[in-house]
Specification:
Pfam families: YgjP-like. It comes from Aliidiomarina halalkaliphila. This protein is α/β, with parallel strands linked by helices. The protein folds into two domains: 80 residues, no CATH class; 100 residues, Zincin-like, CATH 3.30.2010.10. Helix 4 packs across helix 5 and helix 5 packs across helix 6. The longest helix has 22 residues. The structure holds zinc ion. The site of zinc ion has 3 residues, from helix 5.
Length: 201
Amino acid sequence: MVCFIYLTPKVCVKLSIAVSTMERNMRTASGIPISVTRKQMKSIRLRIRATDATVHLSAPHHVSDHVLYQFVQEREDWILKQKQRAKALPRTHPIDNSTRARNALLARVHALAPRWEQKLGVKASAFGVRLMKTRWGSCNLRTKKIWLSMMLASKSDTLLEYVLVHELVHLLEPGHNKRFYRLMEDAIPHWRKLHKELHGE
Ligand SMILES: [Zn+2]
């Protein structure tokens, strides 16, 4: 078994145990686990599975572990970004978009909204919920209608509230600029933590 030269001896010991099977595993410098499979193929392929955000590397037999390690190391930022994306996607459970589920989410929105409208000094013309898989919420600045994604139905009130406040703040500031983030900071000082939680970080 070949040791990755960039790793400390201690890590190498752990790896030598992990790679004794055909399906090898390795970790990036920051600790992201990667499953490595050797195949009859021409180039190295790296992919992040959308269903569970796991990282898979396939490589031809002749490529050394050292080269593979370097390969993933150079792409660590990309891997992290793709993992976050995959985690933010709705999981295996199909989203319940029935009238009952929509009404239930809308009721939660209506329970949370007045306090924040008052606090921020804004008023949405209406709230709506719909199946949106690529965004948590949206705000129509012309009509002042706020839409929230049915993906929020499975999230806590705290996270729902965070998205709601984000959209309400857009009624004060359309762009994601300094002013927007200052207003978010005033409204929910720990919003960044909630943002991370929402995106599965
Ligand atoms: Zn926004």
